[in-house]
């Protein structure tokens, strides 16, 4: 990253044209029934379970952070809690298509991605391979 960046307003404000290809909108027409045919039923169950696990983890984290309790257990946590409620499918979908040779770099809400990758690895890898990674 440069220490300084000179921006010449005359050059930046020079009239011109920005062109690019058309971007299609609202063209996805598949139904849930169509999509279900693309995945094994067992995989869909695992995908749903993983999304529920992430949601429950984040609900726990949010409760600990805001009201200092979860399921009647008191706990004081004063650190950050960046939940990704409603975005669980992204993390689980990413983990579903990646294999053990792939890397993913999380954002500040990365705990969902870590949980999704972990659940995927637990299902896909033999136990001795998991121990090597851990």
Model description:
The chain contains 6 helices and 2 strands, in the order αααββααα. By secondary structure, the chain is mainly α. Strands 1-2 form a two-stranded antiparallel ribbon. Strand 1 and strand 2 form a beta hairpin. Helix 3 packs across helix 4 and helix 4 runs parallel beside helix 5. The longest helix is centred in the middle third of the chain and has 26 residues. The model has no long low-confidence stretch (mean pLDDT 89).
Low-confidence stretches: none
* Biggest sheet strand line-up: 1-2
Mean pLDDT: 89
Tell me the β content. under 5%
Task: Give the termini separation.
Answer: 35 Å
Query: Which structural class do you get from the secondary structure elements?
Result: mainly alpha
How helical, in percent, are the residues? 40-55%
Please compute the radius of gyration using only Cα atoms: 22 Å
Overall spatial form: extended
How many strands appear in the DSSP assignment?
A: 2
Keywords:
134 residues, mainly alpha, two-stranded antiparallel ribbon
What's the SSE blueprint?
Blueprint: H1 9-12, H2 32-36, H3 41-66, E1 69-70, E2 73-74, H4 88-97, H5 111-124, H6 127-133
Antiparallel strand pairs: 1-2
Q: Briefly, what is this?
A:
By secondary structure, this protein is an all-alpha fold. 49% of the residues lie in helices and 3% in strands.
